[in-house]
Amino acid sequence: MKGTLYIISSPSGAGKSSLLKALFEQHNNDNSMYLSVSHTTRPPRPGEVDHVHYHFVTVDEFKNLIERQAFYEWAQVFDKYYGTSRELVQQALQNGQDVFLDIDWQGARQMRKMEPEAKSIFILPPSLEELRQRLVKRAQDSEEVIANRMNKAQREISHYNEYDYCLINDDFDQTLNDLWSIINANRHTRVIIENNEGKTLENLLAGYDGQDDQS
């Protein structure tokens, strides 16, 4: 049974990475989910592991992959390249795994054109002010960087209505439960369709007149 492709997007600080981490920790004991690992030409940061956090490649290697049309989508951010491997995603889907892509709204648009059956989920912060406070509490960025992130966040949030589902992350545990509910519901729908070889509900109920209902 083929897996489902999930596109996950959010502005920085909305909690997307934490939600995905918790989702995999709590619900991936059977290895039924796969988090897509992007290719990048930027150097590894301290603690990052090749093929775990990113597939680290040279610029020449990346450009060769572009020529081979090996990416679903790719982008150049300043002088660094980032891309999503078509082969790795398809391999996981064919293995029956649900695949999760952590990409922005622009990448999501590209993916939906190529994979129209993909499900897309946008993670929203409770408010812009709460988002700003989360970025400040990180104590990782200057005020200028935070201001730039906030401007970018507003642009990203304006595209929330392009997604199948929107989750407001004001309560982490509840949002995690909602995220899992979406995945679980899609799995059950998929099982019903595939187990009945595409038969419609009318086909399955044909001839049933309710006489066996003893309630």
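Next protein, fold it too.
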Amino acid sequence: MANYENHFMTVNKVATFQERRKNLLDLQKLPLEERRAVLRKYYEDWVNNGYDEDYISSGYVGHITLAEEIHARIPDTSKRILDCASGNGFLGEQLMKKHGFTNLDALDMSQGCLDYTRGKNVYTNYICAALGPDRLPIDDDAYDGIGLTGGCGAGHVQPDCLPEWVRITKPGGLIMFVVQEKYLGGEHYDENYCNGALDAILHKMAAESQVEFLEKKRLFYIKHPTDSSKHEYSYMFVLRVL
């Protein structure tokens, strides 16, 4: 990991938001535990050094579009929702302040990010855990819905977390997550996502009656503030737990 420390961990050495995003693609080269260690430190540094401002100035709207979609499908704002890979709390803020949700929890593997979001007074519980195949410190059937935006692909959250999402979601509850379009098309290769790999996993889960695969919908991810040719898109996947 030492060769990556300066590249990833010292946020102030990375000049722009786009360069930070590009550097994170190299995380796939690291073994899992080293990758997680780098991510924890990287986001702990970034969240205290302009994370919110960087995303806002970039034209990022992924949290806005996903929050709208969650509210459209879960109109009862008292339902219990888990914000996975909650990061700087943008999705939770939208769900609470724009849509009125009152029962939100945050899950992130960076304690630094969770500590940062406490100041936003959005979440009830703060769960420090990595998403993956390992059992989460959460009871079965705990949530009415799960949301994730901006955390999939490029060495971050992988589809191996799906069985745990199903376990902790109530029957009839919804799992709604966003994957950037470039990770699905193979532009930034991630074998677990691109060229139909993720779709195949979800269809298999549906065939096994674990979930109902309700929708795959293209959404805005980044609306560039001055150049529409630089807009970026994502796909939202919606699953109903059976």
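About the second fold: Residues 1-12 have pLDDT under 50 and may be disordered.
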